[in-house]
Structures are given as C-alpha cells and as structure tokens.
Design goal:
heterodimer; A: mainly alpha; 1 helix; about 85% helix; B: mainly alpha; Growth Hormone, Chain: A; 18 helices; about 0% strand
C-alpha cells in the first residue's frame, strides 16, 4: 500500500515537472528575450 | 456523439491522488496560445507587401484594412464568451479547450488560405470570426475549473492562467518573425506558411492542456481547507444562476469596474511608444521606445499574477480600490514627469500602472466568484468580457481623439498627452465610485432558494458548501 502510494507520488512529480516545463520553458525564453530588448531603453 | 465521450465532464473527474498543480499548466497551454492575439501586429507590415514583396503595390492590403482583423477577433471574443459561457460551464473544461483549439488553429488555417489566394475576407472570417470564437471559449475555459481546484487561493489560480494570456506575445512575436524569415524568398513573403505552421503548433499545444485538465470529484477539497459555512461580508457561500447574475446591480458595477480599468490602460498601451518619444524628445529613440513597450508588457504580465494573488489576502474590493486610487494618482503625475524630464520616474509610474492594468483582468474572475459563487462563474465571466470589447474600442479612440484635438489646437507634442492622462485619471475615479457601491448580492438571486432543489449540486462542495 505504502509502496504504491510512493510510486503514485513519484509519478505525480514527473507529471508536474513535465507539465510545468512544457509551458514554463517557452515562456521563460520569451520573457528573457523581451527583457534583453527592454534594456535598450536604458542604454 | 459517443466517439467524443472522452470530452465529457464525467470522463475527466480526477482520481484520488491527482495533483491540482497540474491544472495551472493545463490552463496555460490554452492561454499561452490564444494570447498570441496581442502579437498579431507583427504580421501587419508583411501583409501589406504580399504582392509587391519589397514594397506595397496599389493592390496590396492597407494597414487600416488589416487593422479590422484584430478588431473583429476581439469583438467576437467578447460575444462568444458571453453567448457560450453557459455551454462552456456545463460541458466542462476539456470539451471547451478542445473546441477552442480547433477554432483557434482552424482560424490560422483559413487565414493561411486567405493570404495564399489574397482574399482578405477569408482572414476576417478565419482569424477574426473563427479565431475569435477560439479566443472567447479558450479564455473562459479554465476559469471555473481553477477556482474549484483552488478554493483557498482562487485569485492566485486564475491569475496564473490569465498571466499566460498576457505573456503569450513574448513567445508568439519572435516565433512569428523567425518563421516568416525562414519561409520568405525573394519572390514570396512567408506569411501563409507561417500561419499554417502556427495553427498546427497551437492546436497541438492546446490539446495537451485538454488532455491534462481534470475536474475535482464532488465534495473534494484541498487538504486542511475548511470551507466557510457562514458567508463573509463580500464572499458568498451561495450560487447565482448565470442569467440571474445579469439582473443584479453588482454584475453591472463590476462590468463598469473592469471596463474603466481596461479603458484607461488599453488607451495608452497602444500609444506607449509614441508617447515616450514625444514626451521625452531626444532622450527616447525609436529603439528605446520599443524596449519601453516590451518592458511594460512584462509588468502587465507580472501584475496579473501578483495582484490576483494579493487579492486573496486583502480582498477583491480593496484590490480594485488600490488600482483606482493609485492609478489615478499615477496618471495625474505622468505629465509632471514629462515636464521635469524625469524619464526614470515616467517609466516607474507606467510600470506600476501596467501591473494594475493586468491585475484588473486577473482579479475579476475571483471577484465574480466572491459575488455569485462558483457554479456559473465561468459563464458570468464570459458575459463580463463584453466590458473588454467595449474598452478595446473606447480606450484607443479616446486617446487618439484627445491627442488629435490637442495637436489641431496648437498644443506642443510633448504636452499633447497631458489632457489624456487627466481624463484617464478621471475614469479611474469613476471606477473607484463604482467599486465603492459593490455590496453583497441580495439573497433573492441565490439559486438554492429559487431553484428549491431543482438544480442539484454536482460540482465540488468546496466553495459552495
């Protein structure tokens, strides 16, 4: 029972990492590029 | 229809152990795609040269003709969210996300054909109407699901999704530019292929959200969360039917609150580049102005998450009080920053204003949930989005009209925005008054009493118990 609960939790962690990476990576890349362009305001 | 039964609400009830933290990325899958609408302007210039390639010919489309594409899409967003809100609510998030993906991706495909055969009405129909349906359905599709999964932090949860809508342009804009460069040749502008590929990418991305999303099992609540039994002053424990909500003064007051907050923000958003250059001539170059616009977009996005999360602690009404009071003060102070040539102060004032502009969008679903309950919050939110459509027309028109009027009457360019800023501050004062009059919804509108058991609660009891 405990073992299946542990494997369930591990499965959840993998799903969470995958799901958040799927949306987070493109967003982070876009934000980084916008931020780098925005720095031109202060140059 | 049995072939589509995997879309039904009953099929996506979460099993025990499902993590509710999978719902925000599911919502972001949709909002990060449909928010591309904010970046549609990157296609405007290339689409004025589809025939001439290097320069526009008389048969090429003009910017005003192309401007209608975005306007139609935003108008249909408001209409479809209002008309289909109840269908979205009752059909569940997977069906809504699936439909939104097909409409949004389909809109790109139809537009691609329109570009290929150079028929602008096909783009109005594709991106404007079909895509507009995708926008409307997609925008409201995860709202009530997020609120049901996060009854303890509804502001933060919806703020995360709506932050995605604000951030989508950061992905779509460079992606569109890169794809057009890849597909273009000396004889051909690569807009049609870019539309086609982006449509395919968006369908796949949104379908991932539709696959991940789940609704909580009846009676589910987060560990350690105790649903309030007694209503707080401005947080109901009852539900109001979607079409009864529009009969309440509270709905229309919140409609005005959203409309005025958005009008003030959207009006100057489109003018931010020109305004920064004209108020600080010689200090802000066109390149720096583009950087300013990008920076403001980041604050717009960040404010969506920040203010919606803060509203969970200080309450929605107080959050809007801050928007209107601080916003009015900052708008009124902007002309002074121009007069003394204080560019850092100008940027700082705008940064705060834009967090509150985004925050207005992100906090309103939780405000509606507090007023009308969880059950039809998505549908009521859909109806409220007509305020956005109105503001989308009124805001830019107001700013453009005031600027042109000032210039025509000999006001210097650097001072041409001063009156605009004071008018925006005035609008926010009116918003403050509307927000002040928001009180709890009268119990005669509550479903429990009206329906006398005709409507059984099949949703989670977490926020409705």
């Amino acid at each position: 029972m405990e073992a299946s609960e542990r494997s369930g939790n591990a499965g959840n962690v993998v799903k969470l990492v995958l799901a958040w990476s799927f949306v987070g990576i493109p967003l982070a890349l876009g934000v980084a590029q916008t931020l780098s362009n925005a720095m031109k305001l202060f140059q | 229809m049995s072939g589509l039964s995997f879309l039904s609400k009953e099929r996506i009830v979460a099993r025990p152990g499902y993590s509710r933290w999978l719902i925000p990325p599911a919502a972001l899958c949709v909002h990060l795609c449909i928010g591309q609408a904010y970046a549609f302007s990157v296609f405007n210039l290339p689409m004025t040269k589809l025939l001439g390639i290097t320069a526009s010919t008389p048969d090429d489309w003009t910017i005003p003709e192309l401007g209608w594409i975005f306007s139609i899409a935003i108008a249909v967003l408001g209409l479809s969210a209002a008309l289909l809100g109840r269908w979205v609510e009752e059909g569940g998030p997977r069906k809504a996300m699936f439909t939104a993906a097909l409409c949004w991706g389909g809109g790109f495909v139809v537009s691609s054909i329109g570009v290929y055969i150079h028929q602008i009405w096909l783009i109005y129909l594709g991106y404007g109407v079909l895509g507009g349906f995708g926008l409307g359905i997609g925008y409201i599709s995860p709202v009530s699901t997020l609120i049901k999964w996060f009854p303890d932090r509804p502001g933060m949860a919806t703020g995360m999704a709506i932050m995605g809508f604000g951030g989508a342009a950061f992905i779509a804009s460079p992606l569109s530019v890169w794809l057009m460069a890849e597909f273009s040749t000396p004889e051909h502008v690569g807009v049609a292929e870019t539309f086609l590929l982006m449509g395919a990418i968006y369908v796949c991305f949104m379908m991932v959200g539709a696959v991940i999303v789940r609704v909580p099992a009846p009676g589910w609540k987060p560990a350690g969360y105790v649903a309030p039994v007694q209503p707080k002053k401005l947080i109901t424990t009852q539900n109001v039917y979607v079409y009864d909500a529009v009969k309440t003064p509270q709905f229309w007051l919140i409609w005005l609150v959203l409309c005025l907050n958005v009008t003030a923000g959207i009006g100057v958003l489109g003018q931010a580049s020109a305004m920064s250059q004209e108020m600080f001539p010689g200090h802000v170059t066109p390149v720096a102005a583009a950087g300013f616009v990008g920076l403001m977009s980041l604050f717009n996005m960040g404010g969506r998450f920040l203010w919606a999360s803060v509203s969970d602690y200080i309450g929605r009404k107080n959050t809007y009080f801050i928007f209107f009071l601080l916003g009015a003060l900052l708008y009124a102070a902007v002309p002074y920053t121009g007069e003394i040539g204080a560019l850092p102060l100008f940027v700082a004032a705008y940064a705060v204003i834009y967090t509150m502009y985004g925050g207005g969008f992100a906090t309103v679903p939780a405000y509606l949930k507090d007023m009308f309950g969880t059950r039809y919050v998505g549908a009521i939110h859909g109806l409220l989005l007509t305020a956005w459509s109105v503001a989308g027309v009124a805001g830019p028109a107001l700013v453009n009209y005031i600027r042109e009027y000032n210039l025509a009457h000999g006001v210097a360019k650097a001072q041409a925005y001063n009156v605009t800023m004071y008018v925006m501050a005035g609008l926010l004062v009116v918003g403050f008054i509307c927000n002040y009059f928001v009180t709890a919804v009268h119990e005669r509108y509550h479903m429990k009493r009206r329906e006398a058991g005709a409507e059984t609660e099949t949703e989670t009891g977490a926020a409705t118990a």
